Amino acid sequence: MSTGLHPLVVLTGPTASGKSALALRLAMAFHGEIVSCDALQVFRGMDIGTAKPTPLEREAVHHHLLDVRTPVEQFSAGDYQRDARRVLEEIRARGALPLVVGGTGLYLRALLAGLFEGPGRSDPLRRRLHAIADSGGLAHLHARLDRIDPAAAARIPPHDRSRVVRAYEVYLSSGRSLSWWQARGGSRLEGFRWLKLAVHWPRPDLYARIDARVDAMFAGGLVDEVRTLVARHGPGAAAFKAIGYREVLHHLEGRWTLADAIQAAKQASRRYAKRQCTWFRVEPDLDWIDGTGGLEAVYREAAARVTAFLEP
Fold first, then answer.
1. Among 104, 54, 102, which Cα is nearest to 220's?
2. Full set of structural domains in the chain with CATH
3. pTM, two decimal places
4. pLDDT at position 10
5. For 156, which DSSP code?
């Protein structure tokens, strides 16, 4: 039965689970446009290491929120919420089906559920927390966060300085944890109804897909991509701390061999996938599709679910 709300399909889940390829086929089959939900694909020039859609794929299907910042610029969950909601309204006006595609769980939550109304930025507190991280190590600050907000510590990578600092800043500013504030919710996306899909792979299969993707990235020119980006922007951009990029930087600096960098990128990607799986296990109303039957079976199942979802 029609509700008057515009349909929206979400394809999310861990890295290398097949989201982008599935989204491309669904978009072509259902007159859709793809809205990236990836914290790194927003950066221009970071193409190979983020598995960004190719020019041919972008020509086949309209993609949004790719290449909207340089690697030295900031882009937050709040920025994503604002820009993605604007894009969704534009897609709705064209009568197309929006497909939100990506594995950045915080961005997806910001888009659909809204951002929490927590305490604002405190520069003195941030300077103090950065000093703690500098003197005792970021791992020490992350361990302290784990004691006061274990849920936030579980989903924030120990190397993600800005998010670790922000989570601790929220606690010190308000006396409440970041998770407490986030549970209060924010402004829910209005005017849309959504179907959320993800592909489930047994862990050995997922890890094999991750390893194959990392090998393909290095074979496809990731080292040259990083070399070009560093020459253009310098090595200090926060975006270059992303998986793949930081390992290549270590290699270019002479700290690691190429083989070491590849192995480290695989290991970091597997750990990231594990954190993503933890996040998405508690994502509300997420429908999982079994990937063990192969990608063609996944597409048929996803297409059937989208068809049922779109029925009036």
1. 54
2. 6-115+185-310 (3.40.50.300), 123-183 (1.10.20.140)
3. 0.83
4. 98
5. S
